[in-house]
């Protein structure tokens, strides 16, 4: 593998997601300050719904990504890519039209109908932008995809600042601003894919055949990705149904912070996939062992940041104190879902084990849904529902890691049991003790953990330095 190329692409991806995270955090701190709890709940409902629009491409985007992954621009079949773009536009427009008709009946109320209408718009808009972004990544042009992210997020900043200055208390203008930024992102992608659009089209029958072929390849990965978002999504939906839009907004505030971090981490996996597709088995083993050990050793330190973050947020948004209780239970998702996305999901895609990934994710959704149902309808406890989802995520990550270690013939790693214990200790400390006491005890525990694995720390640090110097 070309490590210099990977590091270059990774650095741009980190900058892009850094911009995205900063803007997302700013909007998350300022928007709920201006909107009421209910209005903010509908804004979060919109963001929640559009997080599932990726299902409606039915695997087309993922199929193109898997089929053409590692193929450079000068060798990729541009007519086929262009034809499948318009094939995707056609059938997704039908899905969108059906949802618009349903939303227009008034059966869901004015606000939920509005959210559904704009969700339908984003089915077409966001999936077309995603399609071109996946093509860029498949060609290992991840920098271009990262620049798209920067352009899109900065395009959201301009109307956002205007709305914040005018202190608009309705969530609807924020939806319009999101539409504007996504439209700018799509135009940017189209411009840099103009050589594809000028390559011509296949006959309609051939285009449909190619599109269906990509769907057959990608549908399992799409379902797996959708199931992955449903692990927490089913909990959010049950909270909305049982406790209403205000409680949904409280929970969604904490989940939105977690998602910022996960989106940042996911950019790493996007960079790694096309590079690992071109590597050999030994390079894949080396990637697995080193990345697993790095995340095992460093990610538990992330829990320390919880304490100053919650203190600052509590001063700024005291009306969301209930949400911060959820955050203590949710922050382990950053660690274990982050590991899953960077390591396990990437390797499953490289090894073309989408079926296994799908099964793992669906089982995890089932566990999360069962726990959420028990928590909501039998115990009347949102905390129990959240804990169930988090336990399911920890179990998914741990199982996947152990399975990959066995199939690649590598050692299982010694840190995982201690990492899980550290996570349990962190949650227990946050619930049972004041923040200063909990922070002090956890820092000591992590210090002991780091000391126990100091030899591996030094070894990995040496390898990292070697990569940058090579």
From TrEMBL:
Coiled-coil stretches: none
**Superkingdom of the organism of origin:** Bacteria
Query: What Gene Ontology terms describe where this protein resides (cellular component)?
Result: plasma membrane
Q: Which UniProt keywords apply?
A: Cell membrane, Membrane, Transmembrane, Transmembrane helix
Name its cellular compartments: Cell membrane
Tell me what topology the record assigns in the membrane: Multi-pass membrane protein
What sections of the protein cross the membrane? 12-34, 46-68, 89-108, 114-132, 144-165, 177-197, 217-239, 251-276, 297-317, 323-343, 355-377, 383-404
InterPro entries linked to this entry: Poly_Biosynth_Transport, Rhomboid-like_sf
Question: Which named protein is this?
Answer: Membrane protein involved in the export of O-antigen and teichoic acid
Q: What is the lineage of its organism?
A: Bacteria, Bacillati, Actinomycetota, Coriobacteriia, Coriobacteriales
